[in-house]
Write a structure and sequence with these properties.
6 helices; about 0% strand; mainly alpha; about 130 residues
């Protein structure tokens, strides 16, 4: 009985993980790209990367991160290039953890750590059921 309930849906785990991580990344990327939902927008995000992290050229890095989050999130939701999107999001989360959040203690980096864990799972498993194109 329990096996039928919990073991009868192979391939659906990555589907739900794609949806969760993807929607979160779309929202965070939109904050950086468009300045919506209290986000900084591309110009202010670029200034932050330059002044706080010393990344140059800051606008290029800001655009790259924002597009990886936004477009990568869309790709995850749709199941398009899941592994590549998950890899790029993982890299962004590693930089966010070590470059921004780590000094603030566990509760400052728990969220990007969870996104990193989900992205690594998708990198290893692929998109699962409902993916449009692996």
């Amino acid at each position: 009985m329990l096996n039928r309930i919990f073991g009868g849906f192979p391939g659906w785990g990555p589907f739900f993980l794609r949806l969760g991580v993807g929607v979160i990344m779309i929202a965070h990327g939109a904050q950086k790209l468009f300045g919506i939902w209290g986000g900084p927008g591309l110009s202010n995000f670029s200034k932050y990367l330059s002044s706080q992290m010393g990344l140059k050229p800051a606008m290029a890095w800001a655009l790259a991160v924002a597009l990886i989050e936004f477009v990568g999130g869309i790709f995850l939701v749709l199941g398009i290039m899941t592994r590549l999107s998950a890899l790029l999001i993982s890299i962004v989360m590693i930089v966010a953890i070590f470059g921004v959040h780590l000094g603030g203690g566990f509760f400052d980096f728990e969220f990007p750590l969870m996104i990193l864990a989900g992205s690594i799972c998708l990198l290893l498993t692929g998109g699962g059921r409902g993916a449009l194109k692996e």
